Amino acid sequence: MAAFPGGGGGGGGGSGAGVVSWPRSPAVSALGSALGWEPLPGLQIRSRSVEQTLVPLVAQITTLINHKDKPRRSDRTLRAIQQVGQAVNLAVGRFVMVGEAIANENLELKEEMKIACTEAKQAGETIAHLTDVAALDPPEADGQITVFTDKTGVVKAARLLLSSVTKVLVLADRIVIKQIITSRNKVLLTMEQLEKVSSFQEFVQIFSQFGNEMVEFAHLTGDRQNDLKDEKKKAKMAASRAILEKCTMMLLTASKTCLRHPDCESARVNKAAVFHRMRLALEQVIEIVTDCRPSGENEPGPMSTYAGIKEFKNKVEGLRDNLLLLSKENLRAMLRVVLEHTEDFTDSAYTSHENREHILGLSKQAKMELEQLVSALTYAQNQKRREITDDLEVAILKMCQCMNELHRELHRTATSVAEDLIKYHSDHLVLKALKISGAEGNIEAVAEHSCKLSEQKEQLVEICHLLRHVSGTEPLEITCLHAEDTFLVTGPQIISAAETLTLHPSSKIAKENLDVFCEAWESQLSDMSLLLREISDVFEGRRGEKRVYLSLPRPGKHNANLKALKPTRLDNEEQTQLGRLGLELHKLTTRVDSEMEKWEDPENEIVRHGQSLSSMAYSMYLFTRGEGLLKTTQDLFQQAEAFATEGLKLASALLSFSNQLEDDDKPLLLREIDRMVPACQQLQVTARTLVQGKTATFTKVDTCIHKGKYILDIVAQVLPLSCKLLRKVSLHLGKWGKICTFVGGTPLSLFINCIP
């Protein structure tokens, strides 16, 4: 059977057709804008490998371009610039050699590839010439030389180099996609032959070839899955590859059963279903890698309740910045759509009476809160206010809080139903009974147990449907849809396999076939437990769109007095008061994350501490909304202490870095360190201070979040400053070697030999 190795990573497939889209790296986009780098017609950058290959090159060219702002440089600096320019030219030369070799092996892209390679080579040579010290103006009286007098030439060469290298990479990416399509076509052709065979000997020969082709296809699609940037496409690819892996064994046993019992209708139905499902999975893989559907339209996909609530909350919170963002009609329409989706829960036969009443009550409350919001919004609009009123702010907070409670209740309902049903069916009694009855040739018993399996299938499909509504991320939504489809398809296949065994109870092949389909069912049910755990993790803030810091100090480990404290939760009024402060903290985490993306080395010690601080701050923000891992005030205080400790570690790393700086640059960084250290120490003291009483506890919560926000604001200023200073240090130390390997980080092994 073909082995489908698991894939990781992120990023879209791309056929090379369509309108170009920029690599998502801020550094690439910023430099492209600065250079006036226009999109290249017919190219589209979607894969991670292309983006990661460009980023180091962009960083080095950015260094060169930035030097035009200060035309006079010392001899030491000029030598460093010259080394960078020469390194660029050498690396581009090796890159071009590989590109030309690829062009000679792929005639349909030869002309395009040759043109792009020629452009890249010319641009590399131009950059080397413009950075050549011997070609520069003679030194002035002060011994310094004027560089980059031809500003237009530098920018033009850099733009041409980036454009041509991008084009070569995308053309190479198209070749990878072509390999996947060619491999799929071979698999389809062999499947047609397998479907028509009439003898065991012929089947064995063709299936052996089929197995080799599936292994090749598995490795090609696995590599592509690892290269996907788009998490939604990655999840779809994983689902399709999982189907192909399981169906390969099903195809073997179903085909053997049909050959042994050629007149058995149930065997033919069983076999046809396997072939049909494999063809659909193969087609979906091609849709993903080429980014197009046969109809030419994008698949809309069913909307989940979670996605509806999230969109509605975003729009409501957007009213803070723009009072005219939405009309009251649009607000009502959006809420109506969300509440219509909750009917899937209230109409479900598996929802308890208590859960149903809670959902209906929260739906009614949501309508009331919306009317309060509409009233406050209408008043603010009539007054032609530019800023949000206090009444509208309160209405927004209450509306969002109500939607949070509704989401929480829906999640509780779906997961409790799923846990109960998964546990109830985990003994697989129906499957065992089907196997026994089939082996005995008991038609009545098989029919009875088939009805029970159909009922079980409907129950599992129902919980997949409910879990999709609360999954929390698009990849998990797709996994839920995949699980739902698997139960829908596998259930009837088990029944047809059992009917075949009933008609031929002594057939070892028919028994083996039923075992394979039952194993697929059991495997999917086991996967449901893992899926349920992942959905709960996302809901609790342990994974998903934003990484949350998990290393919370244990009670009593850092402060013995903490054991004596009684954990408490914030009430609704307190959450409302903290709402705006939490929102400001959230904006700061977004700003810090944006600054960290600009660093070339994500493993830099400063970046790592910044990531930890951002993650902890995000979990504190979730606390103000009544979400995430921090459930009680004590959890928050422990998190605040850990936050302060991490801030001191960052200050220590910054201090070590400052020792590498020149005297002129040191004061800038030391000033920020002097602000950060006492702020972190004050937060530590506040977090450890014992308080009693509701008012004192709330005051401590408010103080901790305010101090955390102050520290994160310093971090948001320190990161860009440190990044700028690090680049300056790197240039003066002559760290130019990275450009020599600017094609070395790509999963596209086509260019690995470019590395000197």
UniProtKB/TrEMBL annotation:
Its main location: cytoplasm. Keywords: Cytoplasm. It comes from the Eukaryota. The keyword rRNA-binding does not apply. Pfam families: Vinculin. GO terms for molecular function: actin filament binding; cadherin binding. Transmembrane segments: none annotated. It is found in: Cytoplasm. GO terms for cellular component: cytoplasm. Belongs to the vinculin/alpha-catenin family. This is Alpha-catulin.
